[in-house]
DNA sequence: ATTCTTTGTTTATCCTATAAACTAAGTTTA
DNA sequence: TAAACTTAGTTTATAGGATAAACAAAGAAT
């Protein structure tokens, strides 16, 4: 039983092929000669790898480039249409599905609203959305390479949904269900992890090695990216920063803990506070929209609540920065719609509470992918996996 | 300018040599044949690597093993005396230095107390300790391979001490000073990072991939180990979990934040509380020892304070577990002396506040290296670096 | 038109892992 | 006790891949 990856000729080849491929993906269009110069690989090696990659449809020759005093270079380019990926944002009352190319560009999009979160009902809609997207996928060498689904709950290392409180699901093996139905590799992960992955690859966190994505919706979830990789903890359920205590003897949270951050800084916290202040009628269906409208009209009570929300968000962000010393913190999900009104109190708290060193070394950003954050993130899992299967790196 | 590590024959050789070396270090004594079977490397390859490693003094033939029905195997063993490492625990009022072999065994030890934390004075004692340890190092193929120093303060990516509040140091380039003096590679890091690294290699966290080391002394520092590596954040100053807010509108901390964990759960918090309750006279020199004595005699006031301390420690530990989902949390530094009295309230809080899943997947341990934790940890930096320079791994 | 540059391919060589053959040295069996 | 069998470790011939150097292709400069 050979478990360790030992070194042989094959490994060397894979590694160098990865180097060439990565270079073209990130720096392309680029010539063979340039790749050789920049990577240190011999021209002959680059040529061999390039022709194999062309054969595999991962790259193609886009045409001739400008001469710099000699023969014109042939430019190589990443083939973002070698395959397509499906990403699903499975919300509490909606499903948002996207079909993306290998660069994370959205090709097709499909939305459904859910009025019942019972498993069978959701699975029905889910498979319908996926089926439709599969059908819409253009013909390509590798077809639909994978399906990714971001869910509002805890997912363990084996992609099993342990607990999704707002869907009222427990122990659901969604991966198995989808794979049995479509026979396409499927990845299930927490919505915050999906968002983090997506923002890092294609959004507000491009090329950031250490970033924390904070998804503030009904609750607060976080995706932790460390050294360019999603950190999922020893059992796959890290990043429950929404359940970090910020009031030691605060009120009990359904999670078991007390004084959790999300009790003070989430959409739910905002809505509850607004109702208590009679700024909103109870269980208003479109509470958020209503509050935005009021804020735009300058309702002082609402503005005060938003200010308070921002301050509490800030307190949690200070904790995140002190804990992780990340380069960037990205704030995403529905709360990002209030950016205009919460950015000031957030900045104020950071200004007041962070050490000078952290202040000048951390940036707070808002999601760039917006409402597609989770769906693109979910799609990006399959893209990364697909491309990484062809990749090796050395430490 | 070749910056990327490309694949070639040399890489393959290094990688396989690493595999053989690692195997012998962790599973030795072991025969060439066994290594071949377990790693999947060809017998011939193992033989070649073994003879080179013997030549380099990294391993040696320890003698013949038991026959299993054929020729007796020749057992190979890790040479932990190929070199020695110096580790220093630079405390606020003491210096503890150790000389360790390549397995982290303490060969020599030296302590000094400091009555003045002025830079010049400390440097004087520090160099004296190092010089003495260098002299005591046995003759070996690689001599003293490095010096590691754990300091009570923030250290950036370039080993510069940014701020050590209790020493009242700012912007000290200790690495430069020591290297200029001894011409031995030197590594400076935060004491909690040193402790974390040490406990993972040789203490309570052996073979744990994800662990958090919580050093509770005057303040609280933490060392974060993720995927077997120390995580130091984007600028080298992560793990300030002592400054995570657990009381959103708590009192101001010198760090700038409010309601920081260490204001409630550190040695200083304990001493202050004890003084306020008149359980201890003000600025008692041996406050901790005094409290331990009182606790042993069953002083109810002291026991109550310790209980409270344990609960606050527990609250922070819940935050850590929710944030990182680590396999193990190790509690170290002086507070570990109170283990007996704080373990119950800690467990109680965890029992009450953690989710069932986390409860059954996380273990709280106390430091195994005890007072040598930081010094051995500091020494282990050089050992890891020395051995890893000879190592390559593939992802 | 000739010379110089740059791009990309071909070729001979070197390095390393490997399988297979081989030597060494033990145990088991009859 | 000798023959057969096992296991350990080394030697040898071979294969795969990177590389430098030579070469071919194609353009720019003079």
UniProtKB/TrEMBL annotation, chains A, B:
Stored SUPFAM superfamilies: Actin-like ATPase domain, Winged helix' DNA-binding domain
Entry keyword Lipid metabolism: no
Gene3D superfamilies linked: 3.30.420.40, Winged helix-like DNA-binding domain superfamily/Winged helix DNA-binding domain
Swiss-Prot/TrEMBL keywords: Carbohydrate metabolism, Xylose metabolism
Keyword presence, Ubl conjugation: no
GO BP of this protein: D-xylose metabolic process
Family membership noted in the UniProt record: Belongs to the ROK (NagC/XylR) family.
Entry function: Transcriptional repressor of xylose-utilizing enzymes.
PANTHER family to which the protein is assigned, alphabetical: BIFUNCTIONAL UDP-N-ACETYLGLUCOSAMINE 2-EPIMERASE_N-ACETYLMANNOSAMINE KINASE (PTHR18964:SF149), ROK (REPRESSOR, ORF, KINASE) FAMILY (PTHR18964)
Name of the featured protein: Xylose repressor XylR
Organism: Scopulibacillus darangshiensis
């Amino acid at each position: 039983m050979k478990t360790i990856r030992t070194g042989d000729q094959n490994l060397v080849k894979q590694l160098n092929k990865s180097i060439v491929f990565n270079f073209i993906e990130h720096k392309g269009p680029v010539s063979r000669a340039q790749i050789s110069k920049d990577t240190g690989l011999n021209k002959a090696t680059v040529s061999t790898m390039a022709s194999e990659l062309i054969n595999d449809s991962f790259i193609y020759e886009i045409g001739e480039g400008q001469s710099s005093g000699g023969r014109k270079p042939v430019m190589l380019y990443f083939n973002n249409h070698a395959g397509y990926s499906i990403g699903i944002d499975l919300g509490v009352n909606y499903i948002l599905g996207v079909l993306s190319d290998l660069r994370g560009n959205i090709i097709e999009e499909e939305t459904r609203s859910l009025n019942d979160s019972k498993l069978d009902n959701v699975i029905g809609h889910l498979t319908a959305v996926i089926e439709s997207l599969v059908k819409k996928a253009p013909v390509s060498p590798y077809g639909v390479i994978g399906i990714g689904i971001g869910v509002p709950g805890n997912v363990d290392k084996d992609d099993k949904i342990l607990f999704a409180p707002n869907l009222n699901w427990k122990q659901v093996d969604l991966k198995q269900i989808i794979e049995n139905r479509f026979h396409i590799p499927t990845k299930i992960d927490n919505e915050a992890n999906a968002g983090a992955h997506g923002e890092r690859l294609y959004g507000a966190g491009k090329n950031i090695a250490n970033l924390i994505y904070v998804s503030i919706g009904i609750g607060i979830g976080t995706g932790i990216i460390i050294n360019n990789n999603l950190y999922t903890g020893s059992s796959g359920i890290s990043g429950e920063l929404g359940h970090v205590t910020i009031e030691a003897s605060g009120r009990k949270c359904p999670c078991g803990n007390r004084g959790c951050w999300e009790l003070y800084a989430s959409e739910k916290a905002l809505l509850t506070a607004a109702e208590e202040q009679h700024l909103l009628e109870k269980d208003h269906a479109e509470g958020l929209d209503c509050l935005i409208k009021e804020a735009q009209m300058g309702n002082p009570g609402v503005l005060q609540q938003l200010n308070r929300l921002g301050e509490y968000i800030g307190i949690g962000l200070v904790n995140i920065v002190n804990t992780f010393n990340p380069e960037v913190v990205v704030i995403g999900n529905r709360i990002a719609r209030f950016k205009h009104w919460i950015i000031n109190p957030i900045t104020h708290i950071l200004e007041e509470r962070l050490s000078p060193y952290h202040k000048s070394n951390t940036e707070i950003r808002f999601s760039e992918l917006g409402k597609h954050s989770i769906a693109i993130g979910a799609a990006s899992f399959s893209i990364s996996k697909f491309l990484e299967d062809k990749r090796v790196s050395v430490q």
